[in-house]
Amino acid sequence: MALPKQINLVTFDVYGTLIDWEQGISDAFEKEAARDGFTIDRDELISNFHAIEREIEGGSYELYAEVLRRTAVEISKRLEWPLEPSRSGFLPESVQRWPPFKETNTQLNKVTKKFQTGLISNIDDKLLGQTRRHIPHDFDLVVTAQQVRSYKPDMAHFTELARRMGSKKGWVHISASYYHDVEPCVKNKIPVIWVNRHKEQLEPGQKKPTAEAKNLLEAVKLLGV
């Protein structure tokens, strides 16, 4: 599957693709743990975060702010950091400070001038509103987990986006997550550019994305911008 010759809409995942959430998450945990004199190992933290968040999202739907609170409590247990559950709100509260990648706004400016654009995110509307202060662009379509009451890689986000578009023709999705975005896009024949920031290697049996880039700058170049 190739990128469409005529692109009508470019959608983006948000966290990990436009927003450096790993930095934001690390900063939040380090600050909160320092209150207890506890030191956080970043690599261990991020590894645990991705695994636990994915597990919680696989259950019955709840707002992403609650997913983050539950994730913070479970991570603290695994790290043997005695965090009181009542303090777990530090993580959703930190979302407003998660920074965009350095290239994000420059590249979004290029794309929004040429194409219709959208956001497809595993987030709730309130937290996304806080994040959008860092990416002050007008998007034509926005689909959140709260709106579809589901988390990617389930197809609800993509199905709803296609419904609002009226067609999948000319649509390209851009994401840094193979699990949450690339895999469902490939399965459903949605052209997808994988922003492989961590130089991940596909395992046998995993299907290749339509295209691959090491950062957002490279991804946007593939759109011909």
Radius of gyration based on Cα positions: 17 Å
Major beta sheet, strand line-up: 3-2-1-4-5-6
| DSSP strand content | 5-15%
- Overall mean pLDDT score? 97
The number of E-state strands comes to: 6
In DSSP terms (H or I, runs of 4 or more residues), the helix count works out at: 10
Approximate helicity band: 40-55%
Q: Can you walk through the features of this model?
A:
This protein has 225 residues and is an alpha/beta fold. The chain has helices spanning 21-34, 42-57, 64-78, 90-94, 104-114, 125-131, 145-148, 156-165, 178-187, 216-222, and strands at 9-12, 116-121, 141-144, 171-175, 192-195, 211-213. It has a 6-stranded parallel β-sheet with strand order 3-2-1-4-5-6, with helices on both faces. Strand 4 (171-175), helix 9 and strand 5 form a beta-alpha-beta unit. The model has no long low-confidence stretch (mean pLDDT 97).
Brief sketch in words of this structure:
With 225 residues, this protein is α/β, with parallel strands linked by helices. The chain is built from ten helices and six strands. The chain is globular and about 55 Å long.
Question: Any descriptors?
Answer:
225 residues, globular, 12% strand, six-stranded parallel beta sheet, alpha/beta
Which helices and strands appear, and what pairs or packs with what?
Blueprint: E1 9-12, H1 21-34, H2 42-57, H3 64-78, H4 90-94, H5 104-114, E2 116-121, H6 125-131, E3 141-144, H7 145-148, H8 156-165, E4 171-175, H9 178-187, E5 192-195, E6 211-213, H10 216-222
Parallel strand pairs: 1-2, 1-4, 2-3, 4-5, 5-6
Helix pairs in contact: 2-3
